[in-house]
Input
Amino acid sequence: MSIIKPFKALRPQAQYAKQVASKPYDVLSSAEARIEAQGNPNSFLHITKSEIDLPDTTDVHDDEVYKKAKENLRAFIKRDILFRENKDCYYIYQLVMNGHSQSGLVCVSSMDDYENDVIKKHEFTRPEKELDRINHIKTTGAQTGNVFLAYRNVDALDELINKWLSTKNPVYNLFLRNRFPILILPMVIIVLPLLPK
Output
């Protein structure tokens, strides 16, 4: 069985959530990201695609891009756009598209479980893309993307998630028109902090 843990998320203040929400970094070119973030200094793309704040001629794998991401992340925190949760939490998310909903947990998973095939790999990630995200994480000190893991139904977990969804108010409940419906923490459609006992 894979190990998962709660964590202290760095997430947007509720009043900025819609501005921070962005498409995942890997579905946009730099030019598309520039257009998407234009006029929105709070777009998370300033962190995940930080080359948009550098000259167009900057190579997307240049160290300056990662340094700019770190600078932008610190600025978001300093401007109180993002804040760190004060308790370790699991987060419930729910995506709704075309009348179908999908719910799950945002949590920390074990790298050892990944390396030892406890977590099964479903796709090959090109080494240059992997290195890009490693450099981004090392420089910023933050995992700003998402990794989806699927699990077989666990009745007790499904029950807990459904109970929280039906009895608690969401921290974010965003309708994001023309947005790619994939979760990243700042792009959560519905988020409920689920505090461990």
Q: What stands out?
A: The chain is about 30% helix and 15% strand. The CA atoms of residues 55 and 127 lie 26 Å apart.
